[in-house]
Amino acid sequence: MTAAVSGLSVRRAGPLALLQDAGRFGVRQLGVTQGGPADPHGWAWANWLVGNPWGAAALEITFGGIELVAERGLTVAVAGADLGATLDGEALPGWRPVAIREGQVLAFAQPLNGLRAYLAVVGGFRAEPVLGSVACVVREGLGGHDGLGHKLAAGDSLRVGEEAGRAVPPREAPEAERPDYRGAARLALLPGAQIGEFRGASLFDAFNAAWRVDDRADRMGVRLTGPRLHCRVTSMISEGIGLGAVQVPPDGQPIALLNDRQTIGGYPRLGALTPLAAGRLAQCLPGQEVRLVAVARERALADYRRFRAAFA
Predict the structure, then answer these.
(1) Among candidates 3, 22, 104, 101, which has minimal Cα distance to 60?
(2) pLDDT tens-digit profile of 225-271?
(3) What CATH number labels 185-309?
(4) Helix, strand, or coil here: 198?
(5) CATH 2.40.100.10 occupies which residues in the chain?
(6) Cβ pair 134, 143 in contact under 8 A
């Protein structure tokens, strides 16, 4: 691996910009969660566009509001949400590689289509791994550009390899892989161990009613508002919590847990969103409509294998 050098400096920091690789695994017995990209689809395509292997660190930008200055020539790509990205004030094309020169300003304004954009650079951003990963989890103070779990702030620098300015062959993500995040999302859910404890009317509502994304949403989880769900289980011994777990607390409003979730929980669960469904939910703005769709394990596994095969 080549030496790391300064690639981008932060002129203005937005609400939340975090360095994310594939995530931190094998450490949940320590109470450490996985981190990683909230939307693996956008993150994976951004890396693919600049020729990076699976797992390369990219910048996850939530809501926009950030300005970055190139410290050297770089080849970058932006995928995921449209946050009104510009280069020196001109619209930056998404879902394709773009060469930028030293001194140019890369800015992200505000959500136009989706919530989280992913910025990748040739060779990936560089940082010191913590517990085997650079994934930034702010709550745990782990990973990120500084190893301490801090979001980007004005004056910070993102490091890259010396190959970061290398040209890559022209390529674009297929149109079919560029979601319109503004429409109602259908979220695939694997039924869970406690699903039989929910009343029949609640199960009907869970999979037939429209749910709204609450404004209480972050990388830890997303609360959904809609009909109240009733479960016969009122207390449980805490269990391990996986990505996408849909817990139902006593108020009957589901909470879908995402990458920065706690490692154990004691609320009954409808089941778990698939990784791609959790990623789709992570692109929803407050107030957006979503629907839960029950899927079989075999179908969910086949869908995820097809997704990963595109980046093998």
Answers:
(1) 22
(2) 999 999 999 888 999 999 999 999 999 999 999 999 999 999 999 99
(3) 2.40.100.10
(4) strand
(5) 185-309
(6) yes
